[in-house]
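Running this now, will post back.
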Amino acid sequence: MFQAKKEKFGRFEQVSIAHEESGNRLSLVPEHGACLLNLQLGGLSVLDGYQRPEELDFNNWSKSRFLFPFPNRLKHGTYHWDGVIYQFPINDGQTGNALHGMGMTDPFRYTKLETNADEAVIECSYKNDGKHPAYPFRFSLVVRFTLSVDNRFELQMTFQNLHDKPIPVGIGWHPYFLLDEQGVDKWRLQLPPCEMIGIDPQMIPTGKRYEYDRFKQERVIQSEVLDNCFVLSDPQERASLNLSNEKHRLEYWQEMGTGKFNYIQLFTPPHRQSLAIEPMTCNVDAFNNGDGLVRLHPGERLSAHCGLSLRSM
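Update: finished.
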């Protein structure tokens, strides 16, 4: 049976669910962006999360953050929408761009906790009043975490337009996954059919796409450096990615289709102890290039799923 509990995590409240017999557990902090602190499947930690409350304030590498109303980079932080120019703060000094939208550390409200013998569900919601000068549109975001007894985890993001006019929307998630202490160089990776997005020195798309088959077949990552966005090219309902070592295979998937997670960003941080696998509904700089951008009408929702499972080799 799944058990749930709440406890202090520094100045925050931590909500946890656990199934002791299977070793499946997770914890998150609704008050700090609904950030996932840790995730274990079959007793194995598969998320590079947060050990101490102080780490949340540093927000290193945007670990486990939710990305909205756009993921990735926005060129110079500027975009035009229905004849008006808007400016996001520049928070990526190396490229001079805005990065990952807004609200990554804003408080969510814990709205649902359900447990039974087979699975547990936590739901957190966020509502924006439309007073942000760079995005003066009212909206809500609901994130739903599902943990199952059979070593499966699923995440659903649902963004709703609460404004009285259409608004531009893209959503994403920024988790870092791990398998052991050996790090990325020893793990094997297999990607679904995809094309690499061509970028300029400021990491903004050039409009070109390139065939990418380096990890078409499972192979060791070795010293490969990744900080690239890919568009998924096989028109299936799901795209799957495999990350493995000698003992375990982490099978990650994301939902595809109209308004779904049709893009994925991969990033090997300098410490090379984990791999960021970031589902996105749109391309880099989508507020300007329109690739995957959704024009969400009043009352409409944009919703997408992703998940993972773990199995022994």
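The mean pLDDT is 96. More later if anyone needs it.
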